[in-house]
Specification:
With 128 residues, this protein is α+β, with helices and mostly antiparallel strands. It is built from 3 helices and 2 strands; from the N terminus they run H-E-H-E-H. It is 26% helix and 8% strand.
Length: 128
């Protein structure tokens, strides 16, 4: 079995080659110009993008996905876990997981979570 590090490197190489999928006709319609990255599958019978014509944006295809073992992992090989309070922080495995403080947590509770994480030796992804 290959190691997590080698799979993370493989994912990095795959993502480097992955094209940027653009929404069809984002260059024509002003109302979708701001949402050009929101991919929609072309379904029209004569659609040139669906037919994969040379001058059209690339279609989403199988083969650009990450290896299954590293899906959802950060670049350091740890899985992010959303934390809302100190009790949830105690359930984290510091070897395999990293804490992410929820955006709805206020300043006082955020400081408590950061302090407790330093005591336990748990990394926090969004400390600042």
């Amino acid at each position: 079995m290959t190691s997590i590090r080698s799979l993370l490197e493989k994912r990095k190489k795959i993502k480097r080659k992955k094209p940027k999928y653009l929404r069809l006709f984002w260059w024509k319609k002003i109302r979708i110009r701001n949402r050009m990255d929101s991919w929609r599958r072309p379904k029209g019978m004569d659609n040139k993008t669906r037919k994969k014509w040379k001058s059209r944006p690339p279609m989403v295809e199988v083969g650009y996905g990450s290896p299954r073992e590293v899906k959802g992992l950060l670049s350091n090989g740890k899985r992010p876990v959303l934390v809302h309070n100190v009790e949830e922080l105690l359930k984290i495995d510091k070897e395999k997981e990293i804490a992410v403080i929820a955006s709805t947590v206020g300043k006082r509770k955020r400081l408590q979570i950061i302090q407790k994480a330093e005591e336990l030796g748990i990394e926090i992804f969004n400390k600042d």
